[in-house]
Amino acid sequence: MVLLAMAVLAVVVFRRLHLPPILAYLSAGILAGPGGLGWVGDTEGMLHLAEFGIVFLLFSLGLEFSIPKVLALRRVVFGAGPLQVLLTGLPVAALMWLLGFTPAVALIAGGAFALSSTAIVIRDLITRGAVNTGYGRATTGVLLFQDLAAVIMLVLLPVLANPDSGHPGIAAAVTLGKALALFIGIYVIGKWVLPRALEETGRARSDEVFVMTALLLALLAAWVTHALGLSMALGAFLAGMMLGESHFRHQIEADIRPFRDLLLGLFFMGVGMLVSPALFATHWHWILLGAAVLMLFKLALISLLLRWLGERTETALRSGILLAQGGEFGFVLVALAVSHGLMDNEQAGVLVSITVLTMAVTPALLDNSGALTRRLLRQWEQEPDTPAVDEATTGHVLLCGYGRVGQNLMRYLTRFHHQAVAIDTDLVRIQEASQAGERIIFGDATRKEILERAGIHRASLLVVTFDDARQAERILHTVHQLCPDLRVLVRTRDDTHLDELIQAGAAEVVPEVLEASLMLVAHALMMLDTPFGKVLAMLRQSRRERYKLLRGYYHGESLPTSDSAGNPYRLLHAVTLHGRAACLGKRLDELKLNESKVEVQTLRRGDRTIDRPADDEVLQDGDILILYGPLEAVEASEEKLLGG
Question: Which parts pass through the membrane (predicted)?
Answer without folding.
Answer: 48-65, 77-99, 105-126, 138-157, 169-189, 209-226, 262-280, 286-309, 321-342, 348-366
